Amino acid sequence: MAGGAPTLSPAVIRQLIEHVADPGADYRRAQARRRLAALTEREREVALALGRGWSNGEIGAALRMTVPTVKGHVSRVLTKLDLNNRVQVALLVHDAELT
Q: Residue 37: what pLDDT?
């Protein structure tokens, strides 16, 4: 309490503001996570790397894959998620709040 008045922690205030400012965020997060759950573990790793904006070479180095293997995973991620490009995958990962 500050001066006898109850106070909220900064973390609680931030959560409250985020919820009030964007009431659909919880729904979008749940939907995005549900869609990403349809991927295999390796495909999810690739999707998360796309969400970080990594190139195929960076993904390959981090996940110990060749670039052609990364390209194959990216293609399967796009197909399974019914998306057209890497930016859409990155936005989905962002909505899922996994980056």
A: 97
How does pLDDT run across 39-50, given as a tens digit for each residue? Answer: 999 999 999 999
Name residue, tokens 């990364």.
70
| Residue 21 to residue 13: CA distance in whole angstroms | 12
Domain spans of the chain? Answer: 10-95
Alpha-carbon gap, residue 37 to 21, rounded angstroms: 27
Helix-, strand-, coil-residue percentages of the chain, each rounded to 5:
70, 0, 30
Structural fold of domain 10-95:
Rossmann fold (3.40.50)
Please state the pTM of the whole predicted model.
0.74
